[in-house]
Amino acid sequence: MRVRFAPSPTGALHIGGIRTALFNYLLAKKHGGKFILRIEDTDQNRFVPGAEEYITEALKWCGLALDESPELGGAFGPYRQSERKPIYRQYAEKLVKEGNAYYAFDTNEQLEAARAQDPNFIYNHKSRSTACNSLTLPAAEVEQRLAAGENYVIRLKVPTEGRIVINDLIRGEVVFENNLIDDKVILKSDGMPTYHLANIVDDHLMQITHVIRGEEWLPSTAHHVLLYRFLGWESTMPSFSHLPLILKPNGNGKLSKRDGAKFNMPVFPLSWPLDNHEHFDGDNFTGFREAGFLPEAVINFLAMLGWSSGTDKEIFNMDELVESFSIEKIHKAGARFDFDKAKWFNHQYIQLKSNSELAGLVKPLLSEKGITPTDEYLERFCGLMKNRVNVLSEFASVGYYFFTRDLNYDFETIKKKWNTEVSPKWNDVIGFIERAGETESAVLESKFKDHLNESGIKPGEILPLMRLALAGTMQGPGVFEMIELLGKDDSIERMHKATSVFNESI
Ligand code: GLU
């Protein structure tokens, strides 16, 4: 089994592209096959510098290891279509010679005039008979035009009758009537093949066995089947699987790259442009990586967009996905891009990480803010906070109070909890904490509760105030866990500072 991911380097790779790559990868790994990256850069007008680098980095970040690629090489290279340019022409010429394609000399003006006359104009079995091409011109004139170096394209000659039946592994039988199909350009006037020709020549020469790609390519498949047939390659034609669309969070239509800004969520794996690149195409997107997602979570989330294992299990690491994956379990219907679900997955994967792994990931995010705790403090901090965050950046934003005494106090709750009656009790517990030798949270907590009991102080009066003093907010880890991490001195300082904040707030 050999599968390929064949993106065009036209900008940042949309998250849907990563899902396509993932499904190809899973199929290959499940069957001990090869996963290949081929860069389809035949459209020089749409080429964006930096896009290939982005694709490679995104696949790496997601853990989708390649077996053959432009970077790694392999026995079927080169893996960039622009470097394969000389390969394609012979196939286009062969198609012409055998009557399955033709030279078309129509100028842009002529084509525009035809479109102006008939807005539904397509170049097909009907219109080709009145257009300027090697089917209508005398052979000698065709020779002469070619010899004179006139501009031309080569078009596929779609049969007038008959139908193409595709057995899509996801959709079942899909039928295209030949008389509704256009005569696609297969070789452009610059000598470059179009996507259609290059794609099937390469799939054939690279011995691709399974094509898995987005639904938008389904109509092109009819042309591809014709090309395989005309080139005599039908018996080794790959199987086709067209993945369901990824829909907007509200389910209305296809997820687009602009939906990121609209729904305030990433729709790209990495931010674009990459750090080390200038701003090439004017686009600027935040990626899942930069938004604080773990690649394992993104992969798990994407796998569930249009595929399910058939069980209730939702958390699958890459090995488990490989194990459970099959094309038959891919759905036909579009899959809604539910960003809350992505956060849920990320939350789950954060829990699965050790404190020291998390510390390694959170450290650079803190240091960006000028916060440089010791590794030991950071690990313990991650242990306390990991259950309370969905994305890595929240460690720094939600748990900021572990690194500063400059707190955003929740004055509304302070006003409800603080009064002159509670003030002596507050001073009493500060004294108790000062005297307590032990700050291990379980020990301190039980001593503290005994003390409250003996002094007749209700926990509900005092614990919220302690929480507000230590963190400024009612959210966060347990009070005694916070004291243990902050240490006694810091905790007492916070409580003293809070005394004046509390007094001033009433
Ligand atoms: N170059 C096409 C793309 O950008 C590849 C489609 C295919 O996989 O055949 O998606």
Summarize the structure in words.
With 506 residues, the protein is mainly alpha-helical. Among the domains are: 84-243, Glutamyl-tRNA Synthetase, Domain 3 (Glutamyl-tRNA Synthetase, domain 3); 405-505, Arc Repressor Mutant, subunit A (Orthogonal Bundle), CATH 1.10.10. 44% of the residues lie in helices and 9% in strands. It has 20 helices and eleven strands. The strands form five sheets. A three-stranded antiparallel sheet has the order 3-4-7. The chain has a two-stranded parallel sheet with strand order 1-2. A two-stranded antiparallel sheet has the order 5-6. α7 links the parallel β8 and β9. α1 packs across α10 (318-324) and α17 (441-455) packs across α19. The longest helix is centred in the last third of the chain and has 17 residues, at 488-504. Glutamic acid (GLU) binds next to α6. The site of glutamic acid (GLU) has 8 residues, from α6.
Distance between the termini: 73 Å
Count of DSSP strands: 11
CATH classification class of one domain = Alpha Beta
Which structural class fits the helix and strand makeup? mainly alpha
Q: Which hetero ligands occur in this complex?
A: glutamic acid
Q: Please report which band the strand proportion falls in: under 5%, 5-15%, 15-25%, 25-35%, 35-45% or over 45%.
A: 5-15%
Question: Please, what is the oligomeric state?
Answer: single chain
